[in-house]
Design brief:
This protein is α/β, with parallel strands linked by helices and 334 residues long. It contains 8 helices and 7 strands, in the order H-E-E-E-E-E-E-E-H-H-H-H-H-H-H. A hairpin with a 2-residue loop joins strand 2 (57-60) and strand 3.
Length: 334
């Protein structure tokens, strides 16, 4: 191959490589060149941009949905970021945009965080209030400044002095004593563990399992027992209520009977009625007794076919015989 043709082929190859490289830069460097389908414009307001640039990617919970179209500062000092996002990305009005950095030296992006209540779907022209970015470099500078400040140095010196004081003989003795106590405590704990290990034998575990099984069975039967006990208590309560009502009615009847007896006794004491006259009139009482005796004699005479009056004579003879026997007994005793 002639040398001139060789240089021509090399030049064409280099030109093709430059064209491919340029296309890749445009494809991956400009968000507008990426294919998202239909796009809408949304805006986000921040206090600072945090080195965010045009064409930076826009994410929703880590998923690429668009790119930054424009970054500008308003008259009030706020930063407004205009973004082109896919209309079918599902971005909602409740999502919160934040400017984040993918690493200490990584790219700065906009990432939307999905809230628990995201709200309705975002439309073209929706304005979001963003979360200010965390400047990792600035945080590192603040940390370094804090470490090198006079207060930090003085604090470190005091700590070193205290550490040096703690390394004295008395402190070392206390530390050695504490270590010995810890060692003894560890040995005691090991002995306790061995005791527990010896206690938890297979027989003991079997007994515990049996107790647990019985408790589980009892707990399964407990609802039925409670239900039956509830029914028995309800029936007993009903019977007790009926018994109490019956006792109340009987008590009322007994009170009525007592009141009636009291009235009868009071009337008898006052001499009212037949019984009252008999009790309060001695002559009537004697007449009644005499009539009862005569009636008894008449019944005896009718029973044995005796004439009337014979009963009184027999009774008088019997009484006289009894009196004679009593007199004779007294004479014999004398």
């Amino acid at each position: 191959m002639p040398r001139r043709q060789y240089h021509l082929l090399v030049g064409l190859f280099a030109l093709g490589a430059v064209i491919v490289l340029g296309y890749m830069i445009l494809q991956f460097g400009r968000g507008g060149m990426r294919k998202y389908g239909d796009m809408i414009t949304v805006n986000a307001q921040f206090n600072q941009a945090g080195r965010l640039i045009t064409n930076a990617p826009v994410y929703l919970s880590g998923v690429d949905i668009g790119y930054v179209q424009k970054v500008e500062v308003t008259a009030t000092g706020k930063v407004v970021v205009s973004m082109q996002v896919a209309s079918d990305a599902g971005l909602r009005t409740g999502d919160v945009p934040e400017i984040a950095q993918t690493g200490v030296l990584g790219d700065v992006i906009v990432n939307f965080i999905r809230r628990a209540e995201p709200g309705p779907i975002a439309r073209d022209g929706t304005l979001f209030v963003g979360k200010d970015p965390v400047d990792l470099v600035r945080q590192a500078e603040i940390f370094v400044d804090l470490l090198t400040s006079k207060e930090t140095v003085a604090t470190v010196r005091r700590i070193l002095v205290n550490v040096e004081a703690l390394t004295g003989e008395e402190t070392r003795a206390l530390l050695i004593g504490s270590l010995d106590n810890v060692h003894k405590l560890t040995a005691q704990l090991q002995e306790d563990v061995e005791t527990l290990r010896a206690l938890f034998t297979p027989e003991f575990r079997a007994d515990v399992q049996a107790i647990v099984a019985n408790a589980r069975a009892a707990s399964e039967d407990l609802p039925e027992v409670m239900r039956e006990g509830t029914l028995i208590l309800r029936e007993t309560r009903t019977h007790l209520i009926e018994l109490a009502e019956n006792l109340t009615r009987n008590a009322r009847r007994f009170d009525s009977i007592i009141e009636s007896v009291d009235a009868i006794l009071a009337a008898t004491a006052r001499g009212e009625g037949t019984i009252g006259h008999l009790v309060n009139d001695p002559q009537m009482y004697e007449s009644t007794v005499k009539a009862i005796d005569e009636l008894r004699e008449a019944v005896v005479a009718i029973k044995y076919n005796l004439p009337l009056g014979i009963g009184r004579r027999i009774k008088a003879e019997e009484e006289e015989a009894v009196a004679e026997a009593a007199r004779a007994d007294q004479i014999w005793r004398r």
